[in-house]
Amino acid sequence: MILYPAIDLKDGKAVRLVRGDMERATVFNEDPAAQALDFVAAGCEWLHLVDLNGAFAGAPVNAAPVEAILAACKVPAQLGGGIRDMATIEGWLDKGLARVILGTIAVENPALVREAARAFPGQVAVGIDARGGRVATKGWATETDVDATDLARSFEDAGVAAIIYTDINRDGAMQGPNVEATAALARSVSIPVIASGGVSSLEDLIALRDCGVTLNGAISGRALYDGALDLTVALAALRG
Fold it and tell me: Rounded CA gap, 28 and 31, in Å?
């Protein structure tokens, strides 16, 4: 199981939110590229990047720090937030991003997700962010009636590389991930699933690893910044 350190970008800085609330942002590093290099030095295999401003704006806002991270780091990176048209998808992949994460358009324009997955095999993931099993879009500000599992199943034949499932109520709250919901989603699809939201300890990672269904990985942010989770120790444990 891959551990994806998260770098959430707001106003050019690496921050963490609590449950997606932009008013509850803690700045952890003024230099996101330096933060990325720290994670790489600790041994991470992937980076998980989020353009928080972009998620609300519907277009890339933190392009400069993302490009700085891509230039500085040799490990693959995935990015979500404000990626809602084919030109933006293609532009990011051309700049060296390994994988784009499509969230809002997975609900609003699923045909575009399918088109992108066909055009860029292995480089398109779907981000499913949910409260109480219902999907939220546009930086989690818009609630929908779409069931998270139904949305995941709708892409079963689309060729997407992964589904990143976030329990919004757990994100940044340091209360542990929703293991049951994540495992249930993973059982319902053949697409690789990455867990996100609430991973705050080594025990949380082990619980996800041993949840009874194989997960591609887990994303952790605040716990790595706060020191509650030691990246080097966690990576060693997951590698067995």
Answer: 9
Cα separations in angstroms, 183 against 23, 150, 163, 200: 31, 15, 12, 18
pTM of the model: 0.95
Sign of CA dihedral 167, 209, 113, 17: positive
Tokens for 134, please give them.
């219902």
Q: Could you tell me the mean pLDDT of each successive run of 10 residues in the chain, 240 residues long?
A: 97 91 91 98 97 94 98 97 97 98 96 98 96 87 92 97 92 83 97 95 96 96 94 91
Question: Counting beta carbons within 10 angstroms of the beta carbon of residue 215, is it exposed (0 to 12), middle (13 to 18) or buried (19 or more)?
Answer: buried
Instruction: Calculate the CA 185 to chain-centre distance.
Output: 16
Cα gap 78→99, rounded to integer Å:
5
For β-strands 134-137 and 217-220, DSSP reports them as unpaired
Three-class SS state of 213: coil
Sign of CA dihedral 22, 230, 130, 70: positive
**Cβ atoms within 10 Å of 196's Cβ, excluding its own:** 29
What residues are annotated to the active site?
Answer: 8, 129
Nearest C-alpha neighbor of 56 from the set 26, 92, 80? 80
